[in-house]
Amino acid sequence: MTPPSATPPPVTVEKIHPTLRVADLAAAIDYYTTKLGFTEGFRWGDPPAFGGVNLGGVQLFLDANDGPPSGPGSVFFVVDDVDLLHAHHVAQGVPIAHPIGVRDYEIRDYTVRDRDGHFLTFGSYAAVIDPSMVIERVDVPVRLEKRLAAVLQELAEVKGMSLSSVLEETLLHTFEPLGDGVASPHTKAQLRAIQALKAKHGIDYDCHASYRFTEAPPA
Predict the structure, then answer these.
(1) 53 and 120 inside one domain
(2) Helices 163-174 and 146-159, interaxial angle, to 10°?
(3) Containing domain of residue 53, as a range?
(4) How far is the C-alpha of 17 from the C-alpha of 15, rounded, in Å?
(5) Is residue 79 part of a domain?
(6) Cβ density class 104-113: b for 16+ within 10 Å, e for less
(7) Is pTM beyond 0.90 here?
(8) Are residues 178 and 81 both part of a single domain?
(9) What pLDDT score was predicted for residue 217?
(10) What is the percent of the chain with per-residue pLDDT over 90, rounded to a whole number?
(11) Coil, strand, or helix at residue 55?
């Protein structure tokens, strides 16, 4: 018999489902969906004592099979816009256990407690502010496709940046390889905003279209 190898096998983790013990499944699901911004995923059992709630594609399991929790659990959610979610929780009167702020581990987060005493922390990666760099900007004659220019200008407003800064950020990120592609400076929320802006301005071409652009002659 071949002895077992001490080297762990290669394993790809496809999903992870944190589970919190709750005293009352129905009440817990109601709190998560009406106060915390989750959506209901499922209920299982007769009567149901196990269920799931979803936030941004992540499912959290709630288990009432063994009665009330013996102690508080803790789950950390990394989200794309922590301030937006924090404003929602405050408006819903959710108790804030730890106020929002940037931590030493470079995440801006805050913590709430659910009705069973569990701690839920929500955070976004904070921008690392390095020492400022004095630069010299130059004017570059640039002509852009009209619809693309409109999206770029509105994206600068979404990101709270100047048009020049958005262009510099985008260029610097595309200069850096990331796996088989390149890095993106945009969060998931910003990418959703970009898709909405593309639809608004009627952009119906893909990222390779610039090779096909032919400027119309002046009228």
Answers:
(1) yes
(2) 100
(3) 19-125
(4) 7
(5) yes
(6) eeebbbbbbe
(7) no
(8) no
(9) 85
(10) 64
(11) strand
Question: What pLDDT score does 27 carry?
Answer: 97
**Of 55, 155, 74, nearest in space to 114 by CA:** 74
Show the tokens assigned to 72: 């508080």
pLDDT at 56: 87
Give residue 121's region: left, alpha or beta (phi > 0; psi -120 to 50). beta
Residue 70: which CATH number?
Answer: 3.10.180.10
50 CB contacts (<8 Å, ≥6 apart)?
25, 43, 44, 61, 62, 63, 64, 65
- Side chain identity at 205, as an amino acid letter? Y
Report how many domains make up the chain: 2
**Of 125, 159, 179, which residue constitutes the final position of a domain?**
125
How deeply is 156 buried, as exposed, middle or buried, from its count of CB atoms within 10 A (0-12, 13-18, 19+)?
A: middle
The Cβ-side half-sphere exposure at 10, using a 13 Å CA radius, reads 0
User: DSSP letter at 113?
Assistant: E
Asked if residue 169 lies in contact with residue 186, where contact means CB atoms within 8 angstroms, the answer is no
| 106 shares its domain with 153 | no
Q: Are 84 and 93 in contact (CB under 8 A)?
A: no
